[in-house]
Amino acid sequence: MKVAFLILVIAVAAASTSPVKPNAVDWAKVSEELEASLVIVVNAATKLKELAIAGDKEIGDKIAARIDITGREGRTLFEAILAKVEDQSLTADQFNEYLEAVDTMWEQTVEDLRELIFSLPKEVYKEMSEVYDDAYILFLINGTNVLALLSQ
User: Fold this and answer.
1) How does pLDDT run across 77-98, given as a tens digit for each residue?
2) 20 to 30 Å CA-CA from 74: which of 7, 84, 102, 135?
C-alpha cells in the first residue's frame, strides 16, 4: 500500500503544479473514471461483507454494519465530488482533498474493526486483506487517472 500511496503523492504533486484549464479537461472521462472508482469500492465492500459473514455470522454482521456506515459517509463525499464534475468546477486540489478524506475514512474503519477482523478465521482474514489491498491499489490508480485528467 505504501508504494501505491507514493505513486498517488507523485501524481498529486504533478497535478498541483499544473493549472487547470477549464476547456482542456475531458469532463466525460473524469466522470467515467469516478464511476469506475465507485464500482471498485462498492464491489470490494460487498465482497468484504460477504467474506466476514461467511467466516462468522455474528462477527460478520458487526463488520458489515460498520462497512455500511463507511459506505454512506463515502457516498456523501463522492456525490459532492460528482456535483463539481457536473458543473465542471472540480480542481486537482479538491480531488486530492477527497482522496485524503477517503483514505482517512478507510483507515478509521479498519482501525475500528481491527479486533473483530482478527477474531475471524485466519483464512477469512487473509482473503479480506487481499480484497482490501487490491481495491485500495485500484482506487489509488483510478484516483491518479482523475488527477491526470484534471491537470491537462
Assistant:
1) 999 999 999 999 999 999 999 9
2) 7
Q: Own/partner pairs for 32-38, CB < 8 Å, 24+ apart?
A: 33/142, 33/145, 33/146, 33/149, 34/78, 34/81, 34/82, 34/85, 34/146, 36/142, 37/139, 37/142, 37/143, 37/146, 38/78
The residue assigned the cell 454512506 is 72
Radius of gyration of the chain (CA): 17
The amino acid sitting at 151 is S
Which residue in 77, 51, 73 sits closest to 64, CA to CA? 51
Question: What's the rounded Cα separation, in Å, for the pair 138 and 150?
Answer: 18
User: Quick check: 149 and 20 in contact, CB under 8 A?
Assistant: no
* pTM: predicted TM-score of the whole model, two decimal places: 0.81
For range 102-129, the mean pLDDT: 95
SS3 of the chain:
CHHHHHHHHHHHHHHHHCCCCCCCCCHHHHHHHHHHHHHHHHHHHHHHHHHHHHHCHHHHHHHHHHHHHHHHHHHHHHHHHHHHHHCCCCCHHHHHHHHHHHHHHHHHHHHHHHHHHHCCCHHHHHHHHHHHHHHHHHHHHHHHHHHHHHCC
